[in-house]
Fold this sequence. Notes:
The complex is a heterodimer of chains A (113) and B (113). Chain A is mainly beta and 113 residues long. Chain A is built from no helices and eleven strands. In chain A, the strands form two sheets. In chain A, strands 2, 4, 5, 9, 10 and 11 form a six-stranded mixed beta sheet that branches. Chain A starts with a strand and ends with a strand. Chain B is 0% helix and 47% strand. In chain B, the strands form two sheets. In chain B, strands 2, 4, 5, 8, 9 and 10 form a six-stranded mixed beta sheet that branches. A four-stranded antiparallel beta sheet of chain B has the order 1-3-7-6, with no helix packed on it. The N and C termini of chain B lie far apart (37 Å).
Amino acid sequence: QKEVEQDPGPLSVPEGAIVSLNCTYSNSAFQYFMWYRQYSRKGPELLMYTYSSGNKEDGRFTAQVDKSSKYISLFIRDSQPSDSATYLCAMSLPSGGSYIPTFGRGTSLIVHP
Amino acid sequence: GAGVSQSPSNKVTEKGKDVELRCDPISGHTALYWYRQRLGQGLEFLIYFQGNSAPDKSGLPSDRFSAERTGESVSTLTIQRTQQEDSAVYLCASSLNPADTQYFGPGTRLTVL
């Protein structure tokens, strides 16, 4: 079993839909949770960053962490064609551990007009 | 300001040849990371540099892979006697400090024929 599991998709939705992207993980020691967005032939860029459990909202994006279930989600409201990209979840250990994040394989999202 | 840059953007080589990939991190960033991304896969950690400390080489897949970093500036990743399974996008990232946000370069797409 991989440490971080993420469905590769592709996930195809119409413009304006609410998108839900998810990852599960096995290492209960992870404390920092991140979502990266990667456009085709570009490097990943950090989208959301959450520490421990709870929700975090930034514009149309909401990140959720459920440590009891070892499950994280990224919600995108009012999705736009420009949101079409691969979304990678990543997580890392607390301070004092390794800062090197463990990445999921990414979910390809296609938002069609 | 300038982001992380990588060169070349694309590299096609023959099996058995050596290749050298270059990364220019953001000025002032003490931490530098190399990752490999195979088609449809997540990011696979290769090596991590932090200041003048000994690098964390735990992710290097074989002794054909090596990397150097000059102080807190340029880094080169060298792959000797390339194999077809080395074909991937090689991504470099830098961060101000180890626990800070990683900023990725656009990657070098390596194709081994």
